[in-house]
Design brief:
Elements lengths: L8 H13 L5 H9 L3 H25 L6 H6 L4 H31 L7 H17 L2 H33 L2 H7 L8 H12 L8 H4 L8 H27 L2 H4 L2 H5 L1 H10 L1 H35 L17 H17 L8 H25 L11 H20 L9 H20 L1 H39 L2 E4 L5 H14 L4 E8 L9 H11 L4 E8 L4 H11 L6 E3 L10 E4 L2 E4 L1
Parallel strand pairs: 1-2, 1-4, 2-3
Antiparallel strand pairs: 5-6
Amino acid sequence: MKKVNKLSELAATAISGNDISSSVLYVSALSIAFAGQYAWITLLIVSFVLFLFRKIYGEVVGALPLNGGAYNALLNTTSKRTASFAATLTLLSYMATAVISANEAIHYLHHIVPPMPIIIATIALLSVFAFLVIGGISESAKVAIGIFIFHLGSLVILVGFIVFYLFQNGIETFIENWNWPLEHGSITNAIFLGFSASMLGVSGFESSANFVEEQKKGVFPKTLKNMWIIVSVINPLMAVFALALFALPVLQSPDYQNTLLIEMGSHVGGEWIADLIAVDAFLVLSGAVLTSFVGVTGLLERLALDRIMPPFFLKKNKKGSSYRIIIVFLILSISVLLFTKGEVQLLAGVYTISFLSVMALFGIGNILLKVKRSELPRPERASWLGVLVAIAAVIIALVGNISIPPKDNSPSNVSVFLYYFIPTILFVMAMLNRTLLLKFVLISIDYLFSPIRRFVISSDRKIREVINKINDQEFVFFTRGDNIASLNKVMIYVGKNEHTKRIKIVTILEKGESLPPNLEMEIDFLDREYPEINIDFVKIEGEFTPKLIQELSKKWNVPVNFMFIGSPGDKFPYRIEQLGGVRLII
């Protein structure tokens, strides 16, 4: 058996960390847009919630170290239907992450290469990472590690330039921003909205649980710790730096919302720093695409093993990759990109609600594991208070994101989410209940077509009866000792012209007359040569007259026009005459 290379701490952290650490590109600006000068506080609250989820994920996956994340947690504590609901949300989250991350990555690259066609380049990027994952998870991990190290290195360079800039210019801008009047009313409301938006910055934290089987023993909890440290340091720090560099109205403008880190780099270090951040953004968002492919592969493999998805998805290549899952997910992602015509911001509702719902369901799975599977050994335990606080925090963030009004007459988050969620959950439910649905289809077909089937069967039976009745009509041939060639012509004639499967060959011998030599043997030969026709040879003593023919016709119940007479040496059946009501061949 081929040895499977498990992922090390660095590789597993890089695969998940590229997704969660890419949030620094947008979450600081997003939190500032809603929380203003209190954005860094909301990001610290997010860090605290994520700390609670470290214990929650650690306990569940430690007790059930299988791929599937929230699906796996609920499958072992509730029903397969409930677990399938979590799987659907996770699948939608990965789909939205892949499409949004790829599209945003190309937009950042477009900052350096303006003529680049966005949609075509996005499709190319999705395809590159799909085929990279098909090449094997070890090869994918090497690319993820390279992206991860480059990303952290770029952020360290950016932080160094910002610190040097602030050392020279002071923090007066931060103080002015701190005293800026709030746009959204009270501090509580600002922090609530900022926290709700900032919770999107932990997307990717759940990914490690979806490919835990590919990680070396003991690696999973380390990935959670590493991701928590990255998010807790980078995101609040960048929010503080942004507030120290630019006035709050500038930070809340649309231009800075999309490219905040590039603007920060350009402000403190010039265009080359801005270009470095643009390249870094392209790479780390591409890494988030890679995370989506790896995570969805682990999830769908588990669904296929549990017979929710077809076993079609379990086929692997020589590298051990479930290439069919990856190709189907690639096609799905490209179709969504084309359907939205590149305006992937419409997927924000899918991304937001599905991701936060998965986090909440994982917390619920932890509670159910404590209650129903308390006997399972686990390396660590999350406290009841910690689990309840974490679930409550995620629900608050979910409510906050749903309540945020859409911009520019765009559809609401809930409507966009339902647009994708309903067909997906219907497909999953159909797969889960496919035997029941097939039985229903079978009953429906039976009900609709049973009268037709009965008519066909009845008609078939009656027609066969008529055919058999016709074929049962016996054909009588009188011979005076024809040779086998003449008899064979009779058989050929009967086969071509008469509707019968029975023939009676009759010879009439006058008193003292003997049977022609070899006649019985020749008839026996013909009987074997024409197995589809039953030949009966009859010898009668008497005088061959029309009266005898009439008597035999009544006895055998054969109409006289079905009785033929042949003569030795005659060429049968070239000349037919009528004599005494009997068709004679003479």
